Structures are given as structure tokens and as C-alpha cells.
Amino acid sequence: MTEHSEVLNQPEAEVQEHTHAEGHVHRDDEGSKMAMWLFLFTELLLFGGLFLLYGAYRFEYADGFKVAAAEMNSFIGAVNTIILLTSSLSVALSIAAMQRSHKKLALGMLWFTILCGIAFLINKYFEWSHEIHNGVYPGGPALENMSNGEILYFGLYYVMTGLHGLHVIIGLIFIGFIMVFIARDKITSTNFQKLENAGLYWHLVDVIWIFLFPLFYLLH
Amino acid sequence: MANGTLAKDVSYLEYEGKHKGLAGWLLSVDHKRIGLMYLMGIMIFFFVAMTLGVLMRLEMLSPGETIMKPATYNSVFTLHGVIMVFLFIIPAIPAVFGNFMLPIQIGAKDVAFPRLNLFSWYLYMIGAILAIVSLFTGGGAADTGWTFYVPYSIRSAQNVSMTTLAAFVLGFSSIVTGLNFVVTIHRLRAPGMTWFRMPLFVWGLYATSWIQVLATPVIGITLALIMLERFMGIGVFDPALGGDPILYQHLFWIYSHPAVYIMILPAMGVVSEILPTFARKDIFGYKQIAISSLGIALIGYLVWGHHMFVSGMSDTSRIVFSLLTFLVAIPTGVKIFNWVATLYKGSIKFSAPLYYVLGFIFIFSIGGLTGLVLGALATDIHVTDTYFVVAHFHYVMFGGMGIMFFATMHYWFPKLFGKMYNEKIAIIACTVIIVGFNVLYFPFFIMGYMGMPRRYYDYLPQFQGWHILSTIGSWILVSGIVFMFGNLLYALLKGPKAPMNPWGGTTLEWKVPSPPPLENFDEIPVVTGGPYVHDKQTYIMHPGKEGIKANGGTKTVNQEAAL
């Protein structure tokens, strides 16, 4: 009911016409949040295809997967998990700060989130370059001596963590835009749906990592 | 407005906002203009793919090489499939008529995210251009068939990567449109427009949009993996590296089977619009039709395995998939029954759109029933990968969605452009199309049953009679289509002005001028009844003038709206 009043409360047609060219004036936070959730479903299904492949191949090549997983450095994985979880907390805090009109605190929390994201990517960079240095990459020399299970494990490892890394980068850009909006007072304590959507997206990035971490680092 | 005219006084075709001329279209966020821009793109690609189809039929006129080499034939059927499926059949009704009619039918001024809507059109065009460019670059056009089955799609030297990229981008466009429609339907219904007062076209779009959102990402990742395999040799599907090609088929059909329902559900929605209009009667079994759309979407999501009965699956999964496939026939049967029952004791006015719909019901029933032959395990093995399959999916896709696209164009043409077309010529063209269609595709059933395999450029002499008949059918069909478009084009340029409601339709789009003004309504209407009531008004078009306040005043209206 309250959501609908927004649509119904639209001013007279004449007022609307002036604003049409610049885009619609009506604001629908519920609708915007709903669209974000739908978008997150599509992201889940995008990764879902890969998780399905992982499951099928883990079942088919259980031994090869075990051997390959033993080579992973679960310490770096654990550090990255902690970093991402912390960054999810800071995003949530920035929303809470924004709702209470603490603009500076909200911005600070987002800066912290961005630093966490970058730290995650740096870790990932060292991890990948270590593997590549050892010749473990698709078509790499180390793969010639490996069983099919191990090759598939590393193939999926690169695709899934790579796609996740791409999402971290997109999330960081998303948050960057939001910070500009906050700085320009486009996002306020009464109009913070964009910030909340960015937070939702960042949580998704986090949640996917929470599944990637045990699948690639912990399951031996 | 600067020039002194208000947006509500001029139609969306004439309105000039910040941008004029071509930019006024390319930068417009108006759902109606975007719908027409889709129509332009879709028509062009339809003619490209149709030409490819005619060339294929010409090649099949005699055994051996007739007009093209076998490799060319492979590329031609691949591109015919890719363009028809991804550029025409999937987007045609939702992107053109969904965009145009959805906001009007639910009493809204636009979709929920107008700019996202325009973005989706640009994605569509980028994908389309990539598909066309892939024809002429790289090692030549893709030759894998539109299914891109591995391992051949990994090893083919042709330009498969770019074609898959095109499909990937088109998928994104489809997701964005679906997402936009779901939110629009949830959030922007006019006061009093409860779920069960929505026109059935909106129900069809709603079910479709959910499939678009939930199934398309799966094909996105699958096609991305094909590109990664080709560029980097990841090995997820390559049997040489331990990958499993069957898994590719699963992932491909997890999207592409629901995509079949993306194609047909909006078309079925339009059937449910046209029938009550021309039968002058409320639709029979409104709720059943609405819910059967969701039922088809739900079950349709779970039947992908029936494309793989001979690919290698356990008997258990084959039986389960076969059973689920049969179950889809139930909601489809409900719809067909209700449509026919709507005509019963109606005061039927035979017009071009209704002719198309009757043609659709006839052709689609054949397509649907032969689908059961393919869904049954034993018979499927006999006809797998033969012309029988090709005949079946042309009967449901072209005969279902394609014929309904023509019907939709004739039904909403006066509303889109404010012009009337020549009814007699439209009916003659319709007859030619339906005759040509059956002459073209019915021999496929017979040949397929006799064992003619699909995707071959050559055949045994015993099939030649049927092939010649079918090729003649393709000429009849194409001349009908050209005739039909010629008639519409002439109407567009020289046709008489269309009245607001030429057919006596009852839904909201017939309560606004033809063509509609920029923001559709000068006041958001209030809805007081179902969509297909002929004997009394169920919409209050100017609630403000009549002293009915949508907000606060009449509480009942609002409470229903919130449902």
C-alpha cells in the first residue's frame, strides 16, 4: 500500500511532462531493490552453471581433485576469506551510518571496503602468479604430467576464481560510483537505495567466495 | 513545452523532446519508441534469416550440389538458426509488443526502468551486429548449428567464437528486458489492477520474463566457457582433457528448452487478447489461462533432458524427462480448450488477426501433438535428428510464434501507427501464408519418418518428390509474407487514419488514442473490473475529473491494488 502511493501520488500530468525528457521523476525504492534481487538471482545462476560442473567433475574425478586441492595454499585462501567478510561488515555499517546521516562515516566505511577489495585482488594476484610460475595454467607445462581430474580442477579453478575476481572489480567500481553520489549528496539518509543495492551486490560477491573457498581450498 | 503543445496532445510518433529527428529515437527512453526500434531491427534480421532459409530450400531442390557447397550449407543452416532464434523468435513479441503494450495495458506511463530499457535495445543491436560481422570475418561463418555442440564447436576453424559472443550479448539484452518487465508488473499496475484483472498478454509476459531472468544466465556462462575453451584450452568440455561433452548439452538445454517457452508464452498471451475481442465475449476460463502460463513456465524449466534422449543418459532420467515432457501438454491443452471455448456462442467477427489466430490454433496443435511423438522414448529414437524434428519445431516456433507475430502485427498495427490496412488483402495474404507453411513443412514430417536426416545438404533420390513439394511451399510462403508486409507498408504510408478502437477491444490500450500520446494517459486510470468485459465499462479513464480519488478517497480501490 505505502509503496503504491508513490505511483498514485504523482503530480498533475502537466508537471510530469516537463520532467519526462530528463528521465522520470518518480522514485520507487521497492522496485529498485526488487530489480537488484532479480539481478542477483541471475548472478547466482551464472555461477550456478559452474558449480554444477564442479559438482559433476568432483564426482567423476574424486581422486584427481583431491591431489590437486592438496597443492592449494589454504592460508592465502583463509586470509582472503577474512578480508572479504570484513569488507561485507563495513559495507553494512556504511548503510547504517548513511541512514543516521553520518555522511563522513559512511564514506570512510566504503573506503575501507574498497581497500579490502583491493587487498583481496592483490592476494589473488600473488596466488595466480605463483601457480603460473610453476607452470600450472591451462595448456601449461606442469599440466602435461597431470591426470584429467587435476587438469579439470585447475581449469575450473581459473574460471571460477577468475569470474569471481571480475565480480570483485565490478563491485569496486560500483562502490566507487556510490561514493561519488554520496559526496555529491545524491544519496542521503532518506534516499539511500543505490547504496543499499551496492551493498547487496558486494554481499553476493562475498557469498560466492564463501562457497569457492571450501570447494577449492579445504576439501581435500 | 517550449513550442506550446503539451505531451498529452501529440502522439508519441510526433512528440519532440530534448532531441529531434533520429536522435529523438536513438536516445528516447519512451517504451513505445523503443518498441518500434526493436521492430525495425527484428524485421531486418527476420528477412536475412528468411532469405537464408529460402536458399537452403533451393539447395534441397535436387540431390547433390544445387547452388552451394556442403560447407556453405553448414554455415547457412547455423546462421539461419542463430538469427531466427536469438534475433527474431525470442525477442520479437516481448521486446516489440511487450515494450509497447505492457505499460499501457496495466495503466502505467512507462516501464519501471526506462533507461535500462533503452540500454537493452543497444545490447540487442550490438549482439545483432556481432552476429552479422561473424558471417564475414575470421575463418568464415560458424558451421556448428545453432546449438554449438562440443567438441566440434571447440575445434571448428570457423568463426564460432564471435557467434557465441553475439548470443552471449543477446542473452544479456534478454535478461535486462525480463527484469524490467517483472518489476514493472509488480510495481506499476494502475490502482484497482489486481493480478487477476491483468490482461492475459501481461500474464504471458510475466511468465516469460521470469524464464528470461532465471534461465538466460546459464547459457551465458556456457557460451563463455566455449569461448574460454577456444582461446585458452581450459578443457571443461573437451573430452581430450577429461571434459564431458554431455554436460555441455545439459547446460545448453537448461536454457534453451525454457527459451522455447520464452518464444511461445507471449504469443499465447496475444491469442488470449485477440479471441475475446473478435468473439465479442469474455474469455473462457481467465484464471486457468493465466495460471497455465505459469505452469508451462515452471514445468518447461524441468524438461530439458528430452533433447538428449539418444545422447547418453541413465534410463531413470530419460523416463523422468519423458514424463515431465508429457506434463507440459496439460497446461497447453487447457489453453487450447479455453480458446476454442471462447469462440463457442460468441458473436464472431472474422478479421485478419482472427484468421491468423485460427491458423495458429490449427498449426500449433499439429506441432504440439507431434511434440508428444518426440517426447515418448521409443518413438523419439526412431525420428531423432531427422526432418521430423525439424518439422516439429518449425510447426511450434514458426507456426506458433511466427504466425502469432503476424497476427499481433495486424491486431496492434492501428494502435502502433494510427493507420488502417486493407483487410481483404491481409486475409488473402494470411491464407497464402498458412497454405504455403503447410506445403513447406508438412512433407518434412513424412520425410523424417522415412528417415531423411537433418542438416544434410544431399539426400537419396527417393526423397526428391517431397523435397520439390517443400521447396515449392517455401516459394508460396515467402510470396505470402512479402504480400503481407507490402500491405502493411502501404497502409503505413497511405492508409486511412485508424480510430481509437477499430476492433471493439476492451483492454486499456483501446481506451487511448491511436497512436498513443507520449505518456499514454493524461491521468492514471482506475480499474474496476476484469479485462475482457464487453457489456460494461471496467476502467475509469479520468478518475480525477470524475471526482474519484485513487489515493485515499476510495479505499477499496487501493487495497486491491496493493494485493
Written description of the protein model:
The complex is a heterodimer of chains A (about 220) and B (about 575). Chain A has helices at about 1-10, 15-20, 30-60, 60-70, 75-100, 105-135, 150-185, 195-220. Chain A is mainly α and about 220 residues long. Chain A has one domain (about 30-220): Up-down Bundle (Four Helix Bundle (Hemerythrin (Met), subunit A)), CATH 1.20.120.80. In chain A, helix 6 (about 105-135) runs antiparallel to helix 7. The radius of gyration of chain B is 24 Å and the shape is globular. Chain B starts with 20 loop residues before the first helix and ends with a helix. Chain B has helices at about 20-25, 30-60, 70-90, 90-105, 115-135, 150-155, 160-185, 200-230, 245-280, 285-300, 315-345, 350-375, 375-385, 385-415, 425-450, 465-495, 555-560, and strands spanning about 525, 540. The relative contact order of chain B is 0.11. At the A-B interface, helix 1, helix 2, helix 3 and helix 7 of A face helix 7, helix 8, helix 9 and helix 17 of B.
Record keyword descriptors for this entry:
heterodimer; A: 220 residues; mainly alpha; Four Helix Bundle (Hemerythrin (Met), subunit A); 0% strand; elongated; disordered N terminus; B: 563 residues; Cytochrome C Oxidase, Chain A; two-stranded antiparallel ribbon; 1% strand; globular; disordered C terminus
Structural class of chain A: mainly alpha
> Can you give the helix content of chain A as a percent range?
over 70%
Annotated CATH topology of chain A: Four Helix Bundle (Hemerythrin (Met), subunit A)
Report strand % of chain A. Answer: under 5%
What is the CATH C level class of chain B, in words? Answer: Mainly Alpha
Order of helices and strands of chain B: HHHHHHHHHHHHHHHHEEH
